[in-house]
UniProtKB/TrEMBL annotation:
Stretches assigned to coiled coil: none
UniProt xrefs under Pfam families: Beta-lactamase (PF00144)
SUPFAM superfamilies the UniProt entry points to: beta-lactamase/transpeptidase-like (SSF56601)
InterPro entries according to UniProt: Beta-lactam-related, Beta-lactam/transpept-like, Diverse_Enzym_Activities
Naturally occurring in which organism (per UniProt): Boudabousia marimammalium
Residue ranges occupied by any Beta-lactamase-related domain in the UniProt entry: 16-364
Protein's UniProt name: Beta-lactamase-related domain-containing protein
Length: 385
């Protein structure tokens, strides 16, 4: 990895702000206690508020690796094992049906009570779903993009912002009526294994998700900002989406993340600063982590998917998947063994356990777009070319 200064990072990324494509950024590189931070642009375009190291970002799916940490902590504490069956903890989800064809075509409607209704060929589970299946997203919960099952989730309003619309009981009721995409262990499907695991984890520990995050991640590392809400509007960022005319406001500072959700999600919803998130990755990559044993930290970042399971991945082509983290195979720009993830809100963070270096680029530009977002690759190439 190249040794870079704050000025070098700034000069590489600020052209994207000057062009009007990117509202702002905060980039962090941390190595053995030495941290370089570079920020530029605005945290709020409308107010022209300057981005800085204290700006608060929506973590979106960068919440997921923290749920993996909490789960492995529970394993270490004896609350669960990787082989614990989901049905033991969440009996409401004990007998899901499974699509015989993940790409089967069918229509979904809602009945008068809001429950999904559909007709499609399904079969019974061939084996129980385990905690390990959920941790590796091979449980069968979720869908493959562009399928009727994906449309069924949308019709049932099981969506990325579900925590602002439903209670946890509502989620269990709805997900319990959806067929699995495939038999446990027979594929990989993003997102919803995490939320189901969150339900199981809270029942195994008897502790709510928000309290687990507070007591087992925030406090041990002395983090000030990790929270499920923007705890300071003065440092809050607004979120944008791309358009031909430039960034368009998607969620203002005082929007969804300024109020408490109806339930605290295991897969999304956390907020913090870029430097604080890198402190979490720094700890997980250290020789003597605070959050996990070295063995558990290594297990979390160990590639878990076989060739069959990798067929329907949608993450980077030069990577495998561990426990809610992508793991680079070394054939792309990121070093082999580097692990991390990204969030739909425009944030990406990784760590290289071989060098103890963590690096992340946090923006507030949604990654749901067909327009290119070259700032991420510009940052990676600055570090690794």
């Amino acid at each position: 990895m190249n040794i870079v200064s704050s000025r070098q990072i700034y000069e590489r990324l600020i052209p994207h702000v000057d062009s009007g494509e990117l509202p702002g950024f905060c980039a962090v590189v941390s190595n053995n206690g030495h941290t370089v931070v570079a920020s530029g642009g605005y945290s709020d375009l409308e107010l022209k508020k300057t981005m800085d190291a204290e700006s608060l970002f929506r973590l979106a799916s960068l919440t997921k690796p923290l749920t993996a940490v909490l789960t492995l902590q529970a394993v270490e504490m004896g609350d669960i094992t990787l082989d614990t069956e989901l049905a033991e903890l969440v009996p409401e989800l004990a007998n899901p049906r499974v699509l015989t064809n993940p790409r089967a075509r069918f229509q979904t409607t809602l009945d008068s009570t809001g429950n999904p209704r559909y007709e499609v060929e399904t079969e019974a589970l061939k084996r129980p779903i385990t905690v390990y299946d959920l941790l590796t997203m091979t449980s069968g919960y979720g869908f493959w993009v562009g399928t009727s099952l994906a449309a069924a989730y949308k019709t049932a309003n099981i969506n990325f912002g579900i925590q602002h619309h439903y209670s946890r009981a509502d989620f269990i009721r709805l997900i319990g009526q959806m067929p699995l995409c495939f038999q446990p262990g027979d594929g990989w499907a993003y997102n919803w294994s995490v939320e189901v695991l969150g339900v199981a984890l809270q029942r195994a520990t008897g502790i709510p998700m928000e309290t687990l995050m507070e007591e087992r991640i925030r406090r041990p590392l002395g983090l000030k900002n990790l929270s499920y809400t923007m705890n300071s509007l003065a440092h809050a960022t607004s979120m944008y989406k791309a358009s031909p005319s430039g960034p368009v406001l998607l969620d203002p500072r005082e929007g969804d993340y300024s109020r408490e959700p109806k339930y605290y999600s295991a897969r999304t919803g956390l907020v913090t600063t870029a430097p604080e998130y890198l402190r979490i990755l720094d700890d997980l990559s250290s020789e003597d982590p605070i959050l996990l044993s070295p063995e558990s930290a290594e297990l979390m970042r160990t590639p878990a998917l076989n060739e069959h399971q990798l067929k329907n991945k949608f993450f980077e082509p030069n990577a495998n998947f561990g426990m809610f983290v992508q793991v680079a195979d070394g054939t792309g720009v990121l070093p082999e063994g580097s692990y991390g993830w990204s969030g739909i809100s425009g944030v990406k963070a990784y760590s290289d356990p071989h060098t103890g270096t963590s690096f992340g680029l946090f923006t507030q530009m949604s990654t749901i777009t067909t327009r290119p977002q070259p700032w991420f690759n510009d940052f990676w190439h600055l570090l690794f070319d």
